[in-house]
Amino acid sequence: MTAATGAKRPPRGAFLLGGQSPDQTSAPLTSPRSPLQIRPFEATDWPAVWALLEPVFRAGETFPHDPAINEAKAQLAWAEQSHAVMVAVDPARAVVGTYYLRPNSLALGAHMVNAGYVVAEQTRRLGIGSRLYQHSMQAARRLGFRAMQFNLVVSTNTAGIRCLQRNGFQVVGTLPGAFRHRQLGYVDALGMVQGLVEGPKP
To answer: Does the pLDDT of residue 56 top 60, yes or no?
Structure first.
């Protein structure tokens, strides 16, 4: 997708292949709470990222991807079709989380950004999800996006919804039966949004 005028498009491969990325998004995020680093995805990170994504996709509980998706298609969907991809790395240099940013729509709707996040199961409930949300919102602002929009937040993903709401996201609608949960069948999904700029809503 092509970003709307005013959204700063990084050079091709800047995030996806670990090239020189723009200053406004490449700075790692650290915190006094932990030495977690969030940095641009590099091609050599893919095996570790796939190890995070595969069990989540296979579960069919939070992402709409085919639970039988193969690795090549997953890499295309997560890394190669995204505007930016980041990884969270612990002090042992293990990848413990990842997110992507991409325009939510074409042309006249491309000022709205969409994102996806996955945190390693063994490091959940440690605040890494919130760190990724906060980092992604900073990056999206610097890239010129006006708001972040989630189209299909599965209603049974209560931990994810709570994390989003703690970070300022609001529910703007419910889509009845919009997600075919692998265990529960058809469940509702939420539309959620967070503004990224001051002034009139986009």
So the answer is: yes
Side by side, the strands of the sheet bearing 84-89 are 37-40, 84-89, 95-103, 112-119, 147-154, 185-195, 170-181
Q: How many domains does the chain have?
A: 1
The reply to whether 9 falls in a domain is no
In this prediction the pTM is: 0.81
* Token pair recorded at residue 66: 């085919």
Out of 117-131, 133-147, 166-180, which region has the weakest mean confidence (pLDDT)? 117-131
CB 157 within 8 A of CB 59: no
Expressed as residue numbers, the domain containing 30 is 23-195
Percent of the chain with pLDDT over 70: 81
Comparing CA positions, the residue from 156, 102, 151, 96 lying closest to residue 128 is 96
Indicate which CATH number applies to the domain containing 27: 3.40.630.30
